[in-house]
């Protein structure tokens, strides 16, 4: 670790910190943070979520897509 | 008896009275099947993320209710038979009724994340990012360097 010249920061799941136990699929603003510009789901190694909450996010995103709250695929980027 | 949430989109091109009728029809259906309405939210007409049956806007409404599971097929049949519903989703409700309805503006941890200004700043390999690209969030260190250091030590 020392050879990289910085101390590795410990990742903590944001949802665990905030004690969120249910991730709502209607919460568009929250879910937008967990999709890329193209509409892909951001992987756990980037988002830093724990397995439980990543599953919750994934589930919510999929529900939101079905209800046309989030896009399956963004056409704004070509 | 379980707690469910049903959300649906009504074609906004029918007149307001008809939209109202469709929402009430769902409520009545739940009540007639022994359900109890706990919360009813009409989000109003909003833009959909992608067009469905040629429509770009939809009238959203969601209802939280307690009911027996026999209600669900009845409800589903209703959605399928009636023309103006363009999408529906019924799920177990696991949220809390004390919390305000979310409809897009709620944020579970607003204060801590607002500095990021929206997206996570991450792009996949096919999205103009490259392998090992450092995301801008201080929260997430670069994947390549982080993993390697663990292995070597």
> What pattern of helices and strands is seen along the backbone of chain B?
EHEEHEHH
Can you tell me the residue ranges of chain B where pLDDT is under 50 for at least 5 consecutive residues? 111-119, 140-153
Could you say which overall geometry of chain B the principal axes of the C-alpha atoms support? globular
Give the tally of β-strands of chain A: 0
Helix percentage range of chain B: 25-40%
Number of helices of chain A: 4
Instruction: Return the average pLDDT of chain B rounded to an integer.
Output: 77
Low-confidence stretches of chain A: none
| Biggest sheet statistics of chain B | 4 strands, antiparallel
CATH T-level fold name of the domain at 2-92 in chain B: Alpha-Beta Plaits
CATH class of chain A: Few Secondary Structures
Question: How would you characterize this protein structure?
Answer:
The complex is a heterodimer of chains A (78) and B (153). Chain A is globular, with a radius of gyration of 15 Å. Chain A has a single domain (2-66), classed as 30s Ribosomal Protein S18. Chain A has helices at 14-18, 28-32, 44-47, 51-66. With 78 residues, chain A is mostly helical. Chain A is built from four helices and no strands. The model of chain A has no long low-confidence stretch (mean pLDDT 85). Chain B contains four helices and four strands. In chain B, strands 2-3-1-4 form a four-stranded antiparallel sheet, covered by helices on one side. By secondary structure, chain B is of the alpha+beta class. Chain B has a domain at 2-92: 2-Layer Sandwich (Alpha-Beta Plaits), CATH 3.30.70. The interface between A and B is large, with 43 and 44 residues.
